[in-house]
Amino acid sequence: MPEIILNNYGGSTSLLSTAAAIYAELTPAELPPPEDDVNSNLFDKYELGQLLGCGAFGKVYHARDFRTAQSVAIKVVSKQKILKGGLTGHVKREISIMRQLRHPHIVRQHEILATKKKIYFVLEFAKGGELFAKLAKGRFSEDLSRRYFQQLISAVGYCHSRGVYHRDLKPENLLLDENWDLKVTDFGLSAVRDQIRPDGLLHTLCGTPAYVAPEILGKKGYDGAKVDIWSCGIILFVFNAGYLPFNDTNLMTMYRKIYKGEFRCPKWTSPELKRLLTRLLDINPVTRITIEEIKNDPWFQTGYQEVISVNHPFEFKSWSGPGSNGEFLNAFDIISYSSGFNLSSLVKGNGGFIIKEQFVSRETPEKIIGKIEEVAEVEGMTVAERSGASVKVEGQNGNFVVMVVVNRLTEELVIVEIEKKENDGEIWKKKFKPEISRFVYQG
Question: For binding ATP, which residues are annotated in this chain's numbering (predicted)?
Fold first, then answer.
């Protein structure tokens, strides 16, 4: 039987979701004070409030945005602990994935901030806490089970359409906002399409034992979408029953039940819901129900309204705060650096893939941005937007789009982040890249 990798951010429960649940239950007078090693004034952008929760690799605080007075959750993680714990890949993947996801039922990542020792994840604050805490008080009615399952499938379907597979869906990773609507969180164990092997399957063993799909136990590779659907089936069963379909104090016995698909619905389950659960918890991933089939199911369809979510992959962001004057770095991928251009990720957006590259340089932001504008002028491109150390260049009737942001890393170094469309032809490779490659720091 293979070993199952559990979520390392805070045991079997998401650090952020645990924090939200704790916060929802405590009054300000009961909340613990901020830690001494974290300044309450964060980057002149956020007022750090009470400590909400702790995990093995970080702490979560409630905070207030100075500009909007909006509540946010800030996860503070030690870079040293990430490196020592071997979690660099998990954290980088979570940052990359959450950055591209914009859906009403997914916790939004607002931005990433960092100093030399710490990384600060600024996230949407889910005031309602964990859905798990609500379940602990008793099972849901069938109507409420349907409502939350519809929201869950809407979010999961959105992720799958963008090549993202969560792989650790469970009630502990589902939060509630102030309107008691569901929010999916904790993408630390997620996979993306570029992790799929030539056989078309994923092979990393991960997840939480009671929610893991039988094909993962078989060690023969698995379809990330079908694994998520299985977990959604477990969640729906728990909503309706108030307990797990496959459970045993002996882990090996529980795995055998999962592998055989041995479960029984409670007597109050309607025939329509029972049929859907049977298809969700089909031990054969080939015949297991798909997202589209779920959405067309009569039980699911009752009162369902499709959520329309639009991504804006080239949303222009200017940054004139501390990160631009040498105090701190505000960058997407702050955990590790390498000399030369680094292909950080591929993100599917409207009109083609967006390529993300980054490099470290000793040159000033002004000189780097100036060179981009100079090449754009020579090539007949348009500087669509310019603000501080950020520039967006467009051309070829919208087929060429490049956004370059330069942030201060140290007093001597900057990090240059580039986003561009894949279908730009050879313009970036032949015209822009050779000119700015001379700025790459090789030290």
Answer: 75
DSSP assigned state of 255: H
Question: What SS3 class is residue 77?
Answer: strand
pLDDT tens figures, 160-212: 888 888 878 888 889 999 999 999 987 654 444 444 444 443 334 445 678 88
Q: Is residue 75 marked as binding?
A: yes
Sign of CA dihedral 200, 205, 211, 216: positive
Q: Exposed (0-12), middle (13-18) or buried (19+): which is 405, by Cβ within 10 Å?
A: buried
For 119-200, where are the alpha helices, taking DSSP H only? Answer: 131-135, 142-161
**Residue 121: Cβ-neighbour burial (10 angstroms; 0-12, 13-18, 19+):** buried
Amino acid at 321: G
Q: How many domains does the chain have?
A: 3
Q: Phi and psi (nearest 5°) for 332?
A: -70, -50
Residue 168 bears catalytic tag: yes
CA–CA distance, 248 with 405 (Å, rounded to integer) = 52
| Those residues with Cβ within 8 angstroms of residue 26's Cβ, 6 or more apart along the chain or in another chain | none
Q: Are residues 208 and 78 in the same domain?
A: no
Residue with tokens 């916790």: 107
Assess whether 189 and 205 both reside in one domain.
yes
Domain containing residue 108: 15-124
Strand partners, 345: 356
For residues 106 and 140, membership in a common domain is answered with no
Q: From CA 63, how far away is CA 42, in angstroms rounded?
A: 9
Question: Per the structure block, which two tokens stand in for 436?
Answer: 């700015």
Among 244, 279, 301, where does a domain finish?
A: 301
Look at residue 217 and tell me if it is in a domain. yes
Residue partners of 436: CB distance under 8 A and separation at least 6: 368, 371, 372, 416
Structure confidence by residue, pLDDT tens digits, 313-343 = 434 333 333 333 334 333 333 333 333 443 3
Residue 152 CA, chain-centre distance (Å), reads: 15
Tokens of 384: 């669509």
Catalytic residue among 36, 168, 248, 282: 168
